[in-house]
Specification:
It is a single chain. The protein has 235 residues and is α/β, with parallel strands linked by helices. It has one domain (2-233): Alpha-Beta Barrel (TIM Barrel), CATH 3.20.20.370. It is built from 8 helices and 11 strands. Strand 8 (153-156) and strand 9 form a beta hairpin. Bound molecules: zinc ion. Zinc ion binds at residues 8-9, 68, 72, 128.
């Protein structure tokens, strides 16, 4: 079974946690994709952290780099849909969920420009909280992206191809959801379904003590599968 491992929210805001997660992956021979946020919550712009950027650039020699939103925080506050998406589903992290196509395109373009100026390659785009409004997919297709994903699928935007895919992650922002997602993670390992599976690690997972063992267990399991790059996941 093909398994893809990634570290989300790669930002100077989580420098210690990102390198801790990298160590856990590397100890098992896994080179995870890095989901880079240009300016996390408007308080961690990449250009202000040159040593961190240098480290990410060095890692990009043998790790995939994905653009992962711009601020990683919703700026839309209006309407019932916005309240459901932000407060209930994603705790305010679904940056793209209530934006127009034009607003999505601007943020994607701004993120690309910042990463390009920092000499960071972009291998794909993953929207924060995997929230993919229809217009965003069109934006990615028009910009020639070869890879994106949401909760249930992995996609090649420039050709429109889509494959079902399971994502295993820990919802560490809430203790209840951390427990239910841990159970889901164990179930996924137990069943080892023959589908493209994504293991997504978040820096905040490390703040929940019981998740440390779960992450180790999940990575041990992943290392025993066929660890794949995202580009081979959509091959
Ligand atoms: Zn994220």
């Amino acid at each position: 079974m093909k398994v893809h491992v990634s570290i989300h929210d790669v930002s100077p805001a989580y420098e210690v946690e990102v390198f801790h997660l990298l160590d856990l992956c590397h100890a098992r021979g896994i080179k995870p994709a890095l989901l880079v946020v240009p300016n996390f919550h408007e308080r961690a712009p990449l250009p202000d952290a040159p040593a961190f950027v240098d480290a990410v650039r060095l890692l990009s020699l043998d790790h995939e780099l994905f653009l992962h939103g711009y601020y990683h925080r919703s700026t839309a506050q209006e309407g019932v849909r916005a309240i459901i998406d932000q407060r209930i589903v994603s705790a305010g992290e679904a940056e793209f969920s209530n934006l127009t196509i034009g607003e999505c395109a601007k943020l994607v373009g701004d993120g690309e420009r910042m990463l390009r100026e920092l000499d960071l390659r972009i291998d794909g785009f993953v929207p924060p909280a995997w929230t993919m409004p229809q217009g965003l997919l069109e934006v990615l297709a028009a910009r020639g992206y070869a890879y994106t994903e949401d909760h249930l699928t992995v996609r090649r935007p420039k050709t429109g191809e889509t494959w079902p895919s399971l994502v295993v992650n820990f919802a560490s922002r809430s203790r209840t959801r951390a427990i239910t997602t841990t159970l889901f993670s164990r179930l996924s390992m137990l069943l080892s379904l023959d589908v493209r599976t994504r293991v997504a690690l978040h820096p905040t997972d490390l703040r929940v003590p019981f998740l440390h063992d779960e992450i180790a267990r999940l990575l041990d399991w992943a290392a025993a599968q066929e660890v794949s790059t995202a580009s081979r996941l959509v091959d």
